[in-house]
Design goal:
Layout: E1 2-7, H1 10-27, E2 32-35, H2 38-42, H3 46-51, E3 60-65, H4 68-71, H5 77-81, E4 86-91, H6 96-104, E5 108-112, H7 127-134, H8 138-150
Parallel strand pairs: 1-4, 1-5, 2-3, 3-4
Helix pairs in contact: 7-8
């Protein structure tokens, strides 16, 4: 199984990764979690993770973050996708050719696009509450207090 979470919105991709990990851990309770690093790839550990299995578990969940571009390795996506083990990749930027190849071999992709802020939020001025209290205007003070709560203060 092969999953690729990519995009510029790092917060949402991290949240999705954690949710996916939780779901996979519930589904495969005895599976062990392995974090893949560039050193592991240089040491030739990737084939071991593709074809091997855990000592006490039939599956291994392999997590690789920011590894596709950093390691500079041409992964065998077909082998990763058809492996009994589960591979999770989380990347900020991925070439279109790689995403197409992963889709072609049956991997699951999810892209997280950072939403552009078109308009700045109006910042609530907390001193408007103090001004209303200073004028002894209870109604205005209450309205400004409610606006502050809606603004998240």
């Amino acid at each position: 199984m092969l999953y690729l979470l990519h995009g510029a919105d790092r917060v949402k991709s991290k949240e999705k990764l954690e949710a996916l990990l939780e779901t996979l851990r519930e589904k495969h309770q005895d599976a062990s979690l392995v974090s893949l690093t560039p050193e592991d790839i240089a040491a030739g550990r990737l084939p071991e993770l593709v074809y091997g299995q855990g000592l006490f578990a039939p599956r291994v969940i392999v997590l690789a973050e920011e590894l596709i571009l950093e390691a500079g390795v041409a992964f065998q996506w077909e082998e990763l996708a058809h492996s009994e083990n589960i591979f999770l990749f989380r990347e900020a930027e991925v070439a279109k050719a790689i995403t197409e190849k992963i889709e072609e071999v049956g991997g699951k992709l999810q892209q997280f696009i950072l939403k552009e802020v078109g308009k700045e939020k109006k910042v609530f001025n907390v001193f408007t509450i103090a001004n209303a209290v200073g004028r002894l205007d209870r109604r205005e003070a209450w309205v400004k207090y409610q606006e502050a709560l809606l603004a998240g203060l």
